[in-house]
Specification:
The chain is an alpha+beta fold. Helix content is 38%, strand content 20%. Strands 1-2 form a two-stranded antiparallel ribbon. It comes from Lactobacillus helveticus (Lactobacillus suntoryeus).
């Protein structure tokens, strides 16, 4: 089951330059193992529109939501 996901983005020149995910409440063998892949997809796509990682669907969806929220806050 998914926990609470937090995302902190570093925006530079109107692009996502870095992604910091707090997946400490996620199941280690699933959600936490997907962290690197999720970060890479966010940086590559420059958005929260990323594919779910197989076996970590709940975590992937939590990350999408957290990143979308962080992007929304950054554009305020």
């Amino acid at each position: 089951m998914a926990g609470f996901v937090k995302a902190k983005l570093t925006i530079k020149d109107q692009k996502i330059a870095a992604v910091d995910l707090d997946l400490s409440t996620e199941t280690p063998q699933y959600g936490q193992k997907a962290e690197k892949q999720l970060k890479n997809e966010i940086l590559t796509n420059q958005s929260a529109d990323i594919d779910a990682v197989s076996g970590a669907t709940f975590t992937s969806n939590g990350v999408k939501e957290a990143v979308a929220d962080a992007l929304k806050q950054a554009t305020k």
